[in-house]
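Researcher: Please translate sequence to structure tokens.
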Amino acid sequence: MKFIHFADAHLDSPFLGLSFLPSRSSSSIHDAPNQSLTKVVDLALQENVDLVLIAGDTFDSARPNPSSQIFFAQQIARLTDAKIQVVMIFGNHDHMKKEDLLISASPYFKLLGDGETVETVSYQTANGFEYEITGFSYLKNHITTNKISEFPAKGRHYTFGLMHAQEKSGQSSQNVYAPFNLTELKELNYDYFALGHIHLRQVLSTTPWIVYPGNLQGRHINETDEKGCYLGEINEQTKETKIQFIPTCPIVWQKVAIKLQKPLSQADLQTLICDNLTSSVTTYYCLKIICAEYLSAKEREMIQESDFWHMISQQLDCESQLVDVRLASNSHLEIAENDQVYFKQAEKEVFDQQEFQSFSNDWAKKDDFAAELAQSTLFEEQVQQLAEVKLNSKLKGISDEINED
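Model: Translation complete:
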């Protein structure tokens, strides 16, 4: 028996923060989840799988765009027309009602556990191999209860678990996605537990199998590396299961860091950046430049402009793009001990949470976007890094002048 397990397609994802991209690239990234799902279906047909498991968040919202609904229905029809069994659950993003799906009725499609009720279904392959699937769908965006206690004991047939959930955390505020305890999940001893919700691909256990496939397409720079699905194969005599990750995403996000050793001309800087942004697939890069105090003020301003990113992107292979640049200072820059003490004290005072919020309030009143940035801890980190780069650049210049004298 063969099966495919995927989750978190997030069709119709908005992909915020990429409005600076050229229209062609913007169109490509917005279409990427659809392309990835199409490749999953292509794989299912090519491998002649018996089962496709969809572990939630197929759509990015509970009210998906009609075009996304129609596209998904068409892809499911490709599977059911080939008599491939599809079993799907809703997640916290697409907590819809069963009747809101545009999927045509078919014995080969099943929405499992409608209304957050744990449900078990039984099937068999064309060869007569019997298996069961147990799971539930979200009806609202939060589930605070541990649903594992509602799962039945494993029977004599091969058993899949299907759940959109997150491991229980020490912070109660995070335990709102069907929180589970890994030990309890293992004790169920289902042959394969297909999970969704966490976008990082990971295998929590191999005996028994407990697996997150990650999402189908990375949506921002914190969702790096290849994305796709798991292809599983079950020995019908021994029930031994082997799985293989298959990448399907058309665009990969990647973080790259380069460290400057000395000041560079703009041409040499451009060459250095391009030499470090190489890939055989379409890649969206976030570049971190360490020891950025070697950059002049003009160079720092230049490399943070989207026009510069576009110029670099035109020189990259596979229609790759440079989409973000971060500057970092060399924390080991040697300056006088007294200066280091004053520098650390000033840093502590300026970037005190209340102090930073105070002097950013006026700027935040400019517009809604500024107000949103002012509340972001990530934005504060970026401001702090840039301030350190500029200060260290000044201090380095002073140190160089002293050494020359």
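Researcher: Any highlights?
Model: Residues 5 and 126 are 19 Å apart (CA to CA).
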